[in-house]
């Protein structure tokens, strides 16, 4: 009796494989959606890191010292 070779894990017919990676347009959409989500998350985190590192040196932090209020006019 000859046994069939085991199917590699990558070739498994998982839900992810069937739902996304079988159709090229669906896979392309998933890649673009993932890249967009990663970009938004990365930008948000890096803006928070930048703001924390430069606290007190940005215009939004020192505007009240230099900007005239509307009541002074």
UniProtKB/TrEMBL annotation:
The keyword Cell wall biogenesis/degradation does not apply. It comes from the Eukaryota. The chain crosses the membrane at residues 20-38. The keyword Transmembrane helix applies. This is Complex III subunit 9. It is a single-pass membrane protein. Belongs to the UQCR10/QCR9 family. It is found in: Mitochondrion inner membrane. Component of the ubiquinol-cytochrome c oxidoreductase, a multisubunit transmembrane complex that is part of the mitochondrial electron transport chain which drives oxidative phosphorylation. The complex plays an important role in the uptake of multiple carbon sources present in different host niches. Keywords: Electron transport, Membrane, Mitochondrion, Mitochondrion inner membrane, Respiratory chain, Transmembrane, Transmembrane helix, Transport. Component of the ubiquinol-cytochrome c oxidoreductase (cytochrome b-c1 complex, complex III, CIII), a multisubunit enzyme composed of 3 respiratory subunits cytochrome b, cytochrome c1 and Rieske protein, 2 core protein subunits, and additional low-molecular weight protein subunits.
